[in-house]
């Protein structure tokens, strides 16, 4: 029988030691005098109290990471690093149930989605276990006689990792796995809303043989402490996933020591439905893209752009599908929509609905949420008659709100889709092969889904353009973010 509350769920964990509230610094679990509350979002009650690290803790972790990184890169082969990662992957999958429960409790997403995320998180570790041995250098023909030129790829050094709350497991492994594969060490600042998954993953990494100091996890609500990762000269790389505003701030701070930086920031993804689309695929795609994690993903469809001829039928089918969603506690197997992460997230959804309705939009399903309700729930909502003048057209909602815009021509759709400073993901549905190739090329985004709402996988490059950031995660390119190229010229070979 499934647990009906957080404390019962924690008591039912197979390995209670995976629910950790200490910081992890230099291979030691450190219980801090200062803590902060973490909330279970379906009831808005305290789930636990986690160590609140300070500036000195970050200095200690960075120093430990520096020593560990130098030793790790020098004394392990790529094959050995891959073996450690494979063992870590195996331990994560062996503890799938517990990790899924912990993730669901702190984030609110359904247990099915939570377990899916844990499996997804493990896939990055498995992927980069193999990529560790595939970081090839080049031999380059020299323009000088009796000279050889070749390149090697080396670890960038200590990496600062800052992750978001919406994917508290996958965003850790998508960054840490390639770092370890490259021979780097990491200091992780997990999100204060969802720190437990990061700590549990670190525990399993320790059991897998990751050396002390190579992975450090420092929960904190101290902004000054967290910014040490962007300013400390020993940290040579920052990887951040989060809002565009914070990303810009970190990039400016990192410029002070010319750190390598990769940023995966905000999105405003268009979801285009052409009148020749297969509507069964469209509805399946929009439900995945828009309502996964209750709409709290950076690649969520934020704007549904529907060609006028097909709009009435699309609206009808979407309302029918959305009406079947069931809000509730994430560990309840009947739940399909968990809560949002906090009250501010619910307030933003309400604000977008109120603004759109005040400017002429129509509520097809759902509507404004009860401010006195228990927990941080937002009703899945469909709006029609949405225009570019409304907040939802330009501001990422990050909630279960589906706004429908109508367009006449392909050119109109592309103009609407690209009329944003963001460029993370975009989706469109059409059975016209020529149109598929044209639109995929013309969408100003880093990732495109054609006739599918699912675009994220370990093998697929993940990242955006414009103000959605730079750098790529996952894929064969992901390990390059944690490496530098060294050129070696050997002369006078005839002497």
TrEMBL record:
GO biological process entries: gamma-aminobutyric acid catabolic process
EC number of this enzyme: 1.2.1.16, 1.2.1.24
One GO CC annotation: cytoplasm
Keyword Oxidoreductase: yes
Protein name: Succinate-semialdehyde dehydrogenase, mitochondrial
One Pfam family here: Aldedh
Domain Aldehyde dehydrogenase residue range list: 31-488
Pathway where this protein functions: Amino-acid degradation; 4-aminobutanoate degradation
Lineage: Eukaryota, Fungi, Dikarya, Ascomycota, Pezizomycotina
